[in-house]
Each structure stands twice: as C-alpha cells, then as structure tokens.
Amino acid sequence: MPTLQAQGTFTVQLKPLPAYNTDESAKMGRMSIDKQFSGDIEGTSKGEMVSAMTDTKGSAGYVAMERVEGSIHGRSGAFVLQHSSSMNRGEPMQSVTVVPDSGTQALTGLSGSFVITVAEGKHSYTFAYSLPE
Predict the structure, then answer these.
(1) Is 18 exposed, middle or buried (0-12, 13-18, 19+ CB in 10 A)?
(2) Which among 34, 36, 61, 129 could bridge 86 via Cys, Cβ 3.0 to 4.6 Å?
(3) Which superfamily does 4-130 belong to?
(4) What is the C-alpha radius of gyration for the chain, rounded to an integer number of angstroms?
C-alpha cells in the first residue's frame, strides 16, 4: 500500500472532566476533546485526555484517545487516534497513531501516524497514512 499524506488545520476545545486521582501532589487531570478538522480531512472528533504535570518547567505528558468521523481525501468513515506525548524540559516527543482495525466504511484498513503542529496559537496536522486500494 502506498503512503499518502493529508494536511490541514483543526480547532480544538478542551473541557475539564472530574479527575480520577484527586491527590493535588499527583498533578494529574482529565479533559474532553472536541475537534473540527478542515483541509484534506473534513470532520470532527471527540475524545478524552489524561495529563500529568511536573515541578520542572516544560516537562509534562499526556495520553488520549479520540474518534474521528468524516472524510480523508473524500473517503468517508471513522477511525480512532491514540496519543502518547510528552515534553522533556520543552522538547516535545509526540506519538499519535491510528488504532489498528479502527477504520470504518471507506476508511476500513486505515493505518498511519499523525503529527500535530501548534504555531502562533493555531493547530495544524500532517497525516501520513495508508489505505487498501
């Protein structure tokens, strides 16, 4: 399967959810994720994120799952993205991948990795992906 590329922008709305670990020293939080994608991906997503802060400036981490519904280059369906990202003293390390076999309809068999860029407060994405012919 050839690797294709999708690019565009998205808006994101995060809302606090009740924390499971309420110990303040844990510095953990939960948020709902609502996104609106435009560009090569047209659609929306809903998900949930768990984050952890540290006492060191610029160091933190989060994990998240989000279900995207819409189309990629005109092929419609849904799929799930799995996030596992961290900041080590300001240096980002990002992993956002498609959950295997989560694609539906015309996105069945979708695989790939997603790169999120935040510049001047705006979010953009580059999605390297493969789909069966």
Answers:
(1) exposed
(2) 61
(3) SO1590-like (2.40.350.10)
(4) 16
Nearest to 70 by CA among 42, 47, 90, 32: 42
**Going by C-beta distance under 8 Å and a sequence separation of 6 or more, which residues neighbour residue 112?**
3, 97, 98, 127, 128, 129, 130
Length of the chain: 133
pTM for this prediction: 0.93
Q: Is 29:16 a contact under the CB 8 Å cutoff?
A: yes
Which single residue is written with the structure tokens 């995060």?
14
Q: What does each of the 133 residues of the chain score in pLDDT, given as a tens digit? A: 789 999 999 999 999 999 888 888 889 999 999 999 999 999 999 999 999 999 999 999 999 999 999 999 999 999 999 999 999 999 999 999 999 999 999 999 999 999 999 999 999 999 999 999 7
